[in-house]
Amino acid sequence: MELFYSRDIQGGICRLDQDESGHCVKVLRHRAGDEISVIDGCGTLYRCRIISDSPKGVEAAVISHESNWGGHPYRLHLAVCPTKNNDRYEWFAEKACEIGLDELSPVIGEHSERRVLKTARIEKVLISAAKQSLKASVPSVNEPVSVKEFIRNASKDALRLIAYCFEDERVPRRSIKEVLDSSEAKEIIVMIGPEGDFSKAEAELALEQGFIPVHLGASRLRTETAAITAASAAYFRYM
Amino acid sequence: MELFYSRDIQGGICRLDQDESGHCVKVLRHRAGDEISVIDGCGTLYRCRIISDSPKGVEAAVISHESNWGGHPYRLHLAVCPTKNNDRYEWFAEKACEIGLDELSPVIGEHSERRVLKTARIEKVLISAAKQSLKASVPSVNEPVSVKEFIRNASKDALRLIAYCFEDERVPRRSIKEVLDSSEAKEIIVMIGPEGDFSKAEAELALEQGFIPVHLGASRLRTETAAITAASAAYFRYM
Questions:
Q1: For residues A195-207, average pLDDT
Q2: What is the helix, strand, coil percentage profile of chain B, to 5?
Q3: I need a labelling partner for A82 at 20 to 30 A (CA). Which of A212, B14, B113, B147 fits?
């Protein structure tokens, strides 16, 4: 099933941007009168009939819509340190979206090797992944902030988890599975550290702020694998 | 922690091949007298002292060894159809190894777009992944066979699961989580189909042979994502 993406759907009219229009008309050869399906990135799928098949600006009339299309029964926000290699971060974003993701925050830790990230590229990856996996919601991406800033601003209404590798006898970590299984929380935040792990100071701040320390099992996972594992944990919890 | 890999460990002597030796001596600058750790790919870690630091053929004396190093308490065999794009298959192999994998069988389905696969490349990816994730076992890769041949030859002692997308009212699919949770099986086989799904004939043969049909949740997952999700399911089952 082919899907288009548009943030410009109002007054019963859907307008596609230049890229989407080009793909619609020149590649897929749609013409006025054809029906197309468009996601708005916020959970709704619109069934539309093309009025104007200009390859630079398709216009279509909304026939019907469906809310919460392809959605999942929980809200997952992953805060993940950028990986040294951009490809890996993009792979992870794509997979996390397929599995189930609502919000992505790149966070820069004290031990982070990469301290910048092009969110525009990640947004494109997420739009493609949402279309391919038939979800009308596209996960949002935030601009990078420091780990400490993220910890301080994280919503206290959410079940907030921080995954780090070191052992701290004062506050033993439980498995992410155990913590999720023992909670009814539908809003989940999971922080995934860099290859060098979160620092002791970052972990301490997280605990002070009410984050629950978790481990992701016995395997030593790369950052992007840990992030996918966290997304899977939430997915299985509500499967 | 840096690890080396060798299949040539006998009589108390470990020999590294040309690539490993070059890396050991020229890149990491090890010399005779240094201690190195070597995995044999079959579960054992050897602690060794270098005797000869030739960059073409390092020799080291075994000091001690540890069995089942970095192992996991179950045996997972994934049979996965090759993806159209080789990168995706390699990406999946790397991640599945990090999470926990013992054997990988590329299987060619009736709906498979790609009908060949270079197993040598996959082996290299798996050796790297095992070293990076500190596991002494490297998952084995088999030569590609047809889905039907795999189904017929699969060990009947294992818990055998086939994940397909279509609904079959005669034999409803259960979630992979539910099936694993209700089983004590330590040997698990999971078949993951191509983007076009397994054919009805392949699914029927699988059911005849005793495979249990499962789904991987509500999300529509690419082949490589489905395979990682299956690996995660086994990982969480025994977490």
A1: 94
A2: 30, 25, 40
A3: A212
Q: For residue B200, give the nearest of B226, B168, B223 by alpha carbon.
A: B168
Task: Please state the ipTM of this predicted complex.
Answer: 0.94
Q: Is the pLDDT of residue B169 over 80?
A: no
Cβ of B229 within 8 Å of Cβ of A175? The answer is: no
Q: In chain B, which segments carry CATH 2.40.240.20?
A: 4-66
From the CA of A83, how many Å to the nearest CA of chain B?
15
Least Cα distance to B122 among B77, B88, B147, B150 occurs for B88
Taking CB atoms and an 8 Å cutoff, what residues of chain B touch A219? 72, 98-100, 133, 135, 235
Query: At residue B84, what is the residue type?
Result: K
Decide: helix, strand or coil at residue A148: helix
What pLDDT is attached to residue B167? Answer: 81
Q: Do A177 and B239 touch (CB under 8 A)?
A: yes
From-to residues of CATH 3.40.1280.10 in chain A: 75-238
| Mean pLDDT, range B86-99, rounded to an integer | 97
Write down the pLDDT at residue B168.
Answer: 78
What pTM did the predictor assign?
0.95
Angle in degrees, 0-180, between the axes of helices B119-132 and B86-99, rounded to the nearest 10: 40
Token duo for residue B142: 């088999």
Which of B101, B165, B229 is the best residue to mutate to test the A interface, defined by the most A CB atoms within 10 Å of its own CB?
Answer: B229
- The amino acid that residue B77 corresponds to is H
* Mean pLDDT rounded to a whole number for chain A: 96
Question: H helices of chain A, where?
Answer: 18-22, 86-99, 119-132, 147-153, 176-181, 200-208, 223-237
Backbone φ/ψ region at A196: left (φ over 0), alpha (ψ -120 to 50), beta: alpha
Interfacial residues of B (vs A; Cβ cutoff 8 Å): 70, 72, 91, 95, 98-100, 132-135, 175, 177, 217-222, 225, 228-229, 232-233, 235-236, 239
Specify the fold of B4-66: Ribosomal Protein L25; Chain P (2.40.240)
Residue B66 half-sphere exposure, CB side, CA atoms within 13 Å?
12
Digit-coded pLDDT (tens) for A119-137:
999 999 999 999 999 999 9
Task: Classify domain B75-238 at the CATH topology level.
Answer: Alpha/beta knot (3.40.1280)
Beta partners for residue B62, in sequence order: B48
Which residues of A have a CB under 8 Å from any CB of B? 70, 72, 91, 95, 98-100, 132-135, 175, 177, 217-222, 225, 228-229, 232-233, 235-236, 239
CB-CB neighbors (< 8 A) of A217 in chain B: 235-236, 239
